[in-house]
């Protein structure tokens, strides 16, 4: 495998960390030529959450056609691809293995460089695919189904972790509250839709401050509090689902906005990027934009389709890694958890 620094012209990226099989082609590190996502949500919906065994089997079924479609949409073929980036972790091991094995095989067969990408790093990079991306440094929030991490992002390849969730991730809290309310999986989109018609002040759910580690998050107390109110209200007529959704969402948004802005003030950085699946939430986007504006700061959000899992963000991170000569070894393995706290 090539080990020198190299500037890829047509980079193919693959993402299979969770329940989306995705591939993208990035030209010259700037131009997104294709971005294909095959979601398995309809399969896992039936079970109220992701079934890892089913996820890996479906990645295996889908990966060839997803990659072929990404090449076709980019009006190119395998012979023109000169580098590959693949999500190496964190995520579901069985799912990650499918993407990494496919990427390794293709890279070896073609004799082209391969780089392994950290999924959270990729989420942070999704903001560079905005029309007007932020300058460095910026405060980056990754808020997804598995993580709620706050970083100072210094450049394309380095980010310092300021804090993370101690229990549930914000997206996980949305998914669990949806389950309590017998709503479908994933919970985020449906809760945010119902919240639009509810009163965010109907229930005063807790906002965990964690004064000793102010940039850490905790959503388990909030989740328990919602469960308590659901139990209390059950049997007393129809549940005020819209009010519960609005009050729960407001509590999550308050915490995310407050902690992110407090980190920005603390580090004297006036640019904030919000990434990950929960960053599609319209209330979070509106509140973050409004509160940053009040302080004279600026909030950056990737396009909604680049907030949820995709391979375009993997391509961008991978491009900078390959340019810097950061390549995967032939015996590279996947990792389910983050090996390093900072990137
Ligand atoms: O980033 P992502 O696609 O996958 C992970 O890396 O986890 O995030 C998925 C998470 C799910 O928990 C889902 O409920 C949440 O993002 N989500 C939302 C919204 N859309 C997706 N949460 C709140 N509001 C939304 N509109
Ligand atoms: Zn993700």
Structural account:
The protein has 343 residues and is an alpha/beta fold. It has two domains: 10-125 and 307-323, ATPase, nucleotide binding domain (Nucleotidyltransferase, domain 5), CATH 3.30.420; 132-301, 2-Layer Sandwich (Nucleotidyltransferase, domain 5). The protein contains eleven helices and ten strands. It has helices spanning 41-45, 52-73, 93-110, 119-125, 170-180, 187-195, 220-233, 241-266, 282-294, 304-307, 312-323, and strands at residues 10-15, 20-27, 31-39, 83-89, 114-118, 138-143, 148-155, 158-164, 271-275, 298-300. β2 and β3 form a beta hairpin. The mean pLDDT is 95. Bound molecules: 5'-O-[(R)-(carboxyoxy)(hydroxy)phosphoryl]adenosine and zinc ion. Zinc ion (ZN) binds at residues 119, 123, 144, 276, 309.
Key phrases:
globular, binds 5'-O-[(R)-(carboxyoxy)(hydroxy)phosphoryl]adenosine, Nucleotidyltransferase, domain 5, 2 domains, 10 strands, 41% helix, 11 helices, 5-stranded mixed β-sheet, alpha/beta, binds zinc ion, 343 residues, 19% strand
């Amino acid at each position: 495998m090539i080990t020198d620094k190299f500037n890829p012209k047509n980079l193919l990226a693959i993402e299979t960390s969770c329940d989306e099989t995705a591939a993208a082609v990035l030209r010259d590190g700037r131009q997104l030529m294709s971005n294909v996502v095959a979601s398995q949500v309809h399969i896992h919906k039936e079970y109220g959450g992701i079934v890892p065994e089913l996820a890996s089997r479906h990645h295996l079924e889908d990966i060839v056609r997803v990659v072929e479609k990404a090449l076709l949409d980019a009006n190119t073929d395998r012979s023109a691809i000169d580098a590959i980036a693949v999500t190496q972790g964190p995520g579901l091991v069985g799912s990650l293995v499918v993407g990494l094995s496919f990427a390794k095989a293709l890279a070896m067969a073609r004799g082209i460089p391969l780089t392994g990408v950290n999924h959270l790093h990729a989420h942070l990079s999704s903001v560079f695919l905005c029309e007007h991306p932020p300058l460095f440094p910026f405060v980056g929030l990754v808020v997804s189904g598995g993580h709620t991490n706050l970083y100072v992002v210094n450049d394309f390849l380095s980010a310092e972790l300021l804090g993370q969730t101690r229990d549930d991730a914000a997206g996980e809290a949305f998914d669990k509250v949806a389950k309590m309310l017998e709503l479908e999986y994933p919970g985020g989109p449906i809760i945010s839709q119902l919240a639009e018609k509810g009163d965010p002040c109907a229930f005063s759910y807790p906002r965990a401050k964690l004064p000793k580690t102010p940039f850490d998050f905790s959503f388990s107390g909030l989740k328990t509090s919602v469960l308590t109110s659901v139990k209390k209200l059950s049997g007393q007529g129809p549940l005020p689902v819209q009010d519960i959704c609005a009050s729960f969402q407001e509590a999550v948004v308050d915490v995310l906005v407050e902690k992110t802005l407090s980190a920005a003030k603390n580090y004297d950085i006036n640019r904030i990027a919000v990434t990950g699946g929960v960053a599609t939430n319209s209330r979070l986007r509106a509140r973050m934009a409004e509160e940053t504006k009040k302080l004279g700061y600026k909030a950056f959000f990737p396009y909604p389709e680049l907030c949820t899992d995709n391979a375009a963000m993997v391509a961008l991170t991978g491009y900078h890694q390959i340019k810097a000569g950061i390549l995967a070894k032939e015996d590279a393995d996947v990792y389910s958890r983050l090996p390093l706290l900072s990137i």
